[in-house]
């Protein structure tokens, strides 16, 4: 297993937020973390990419507990693309931001060599962002930023990719392009996706979080049953494979079950 999360317990602001969360992701697998707002998805990701130390439990990447690795060793294994990219300093070009992904491999004082520059160009090209290389990062649109941040994560050559709402800000074509790109990398991925339709297309398996607990996990079709969607998400919907082979979510005409009854004529 590339990623193993065992019995993770986290409290924030004096309140338990995660209760014994256990999940895993194997080699080349894409695992989706889904659940309603506030269910603990981002908190799990923070623990996985080593920005939040859990009260209890362990996160292992390639067999090693991330808290027994140095921050640099952990960064060589795990790369994250997060919703809040405000940590990016003003005044850096896109190439410079992507090159930051090489830092864990040679340390802060190391200098980028020709191989690093080539890796940056290749990652930008793979994310269809090569034409943005000389632009100032902060001048980019939200969707352009997401592509560049994915390029920065890929240039890190991670064994595990952690994605928090990667497709936010993207137009519909760009969403599919970026999801295809993630799949083509072959990197083990743990991805938070609010859009269940995208989750069922991208993920090999899903883990469903509800109020800080894993309430279901497994292959998409077996896990996202109508009963679970009603209980956890509060919507009437079905997930099934259509004749064209694509798995889709279909929401009922009245997904919330709140429509007023049709008046009876008489
Ligand atoms: N720093 C904090 N202090 C106190 N509570 C926090 C803190 N950060 C998060 N929480 C709480 O922890 C719970 C889980 O939050 P988290 O952001 O992990 O949920 P989420 O599933 O990612 O939500 P969303 O889908 O809305 O992004 C929420 O109830 C949130 O209010």
TrEMBL record:
Domain of life assignment: Bacteria
Matching entries from Gene3D superfamilies are given as:
P-loop containing nucleotide triphosphate hydrolases (3.40.50.300)
Does this UniProt record's set of keywords contain Nucleotide-binding? yes
Q: Which InterPro entries match?
A: AAA+_ATPase, ABC_transporter-like_ATP-bd, ABC_transporter-like_CS, P-loop_NTPase
Under Gene Ontology molecular function, one entry of this record is: ATP binding
Mind telling me which Pfam families this protein's record contains?
ABC_tran
Q: In this protein, which residues make up the domain named ABC transporter?
A: 3-236
Q: Name the UniProt key words of this record, in alphabetical order.
A: ATP-binding, Nucleotide-binding
Q: What is this protein called?
A: ABC transporter ATP-binding protein
